[in-house]
Write a structure and sequence with these properties.
The protein has strands at residues 3-7, 11-12, 18-25, 35-41, 48-54, 59-61, 69-74, 79-84, 93-99, 102-103, 107-111. It is mainly beta and 113 residues long.
Length: 113
């Protein structure tokens, strides 16, 4: 069974870059046809898909966040990473990683000075 665990700072200052890592166990991030996603949920709002990195390493981002988003991976560590630049308080959310129907527990990120 695939397990995912998010990690990273819980507090980021405005204009800085948010960086989160998803560590995967029970499966390989290079497994064919798996798409490894980042999703967030701002307080009081619904889920927002951020983007994914495919098993091949190619990426696709939400058009609304594309200019600020980078998703990369480290196959040696079986991890993939989200970077979101120039954050504002509107980027405050619970951030989760996902593949198929497997989810991490989510991590709260607050953007505040």
């Amino acid at each position: 069974q695939v397990q995912l665990q998010e990690s990273g700072p819980g507090l980021v200052k405005p204009s800085q870059t948010l960086s989160l890592t998803c560590t995967v166990s029970g499966g390989s991030i290079t497994t064919n046809y798996y798409y490894w996603s980042w999703i967030r949920q701002p307080p009081g709002k619904g889920l927002e898909w951020i983007g994914y990195i495919r098993y091949s390493g190619s990426t696709y981002y939400s058009p609304s966040l594309k200019s600020r988003t980078n998703i990369s991976r480290d196959t040696s560590k079986n991890q993939f990473t989200l970077q979101l630049s120039s954050v504002t308080p509107e980027d405050t959310a619970v951030y989760s990683c996902n593949v198929q129907f497997y989810w991490g527990q989510g991590t709260q990120v607050t953007v505040s000075s």
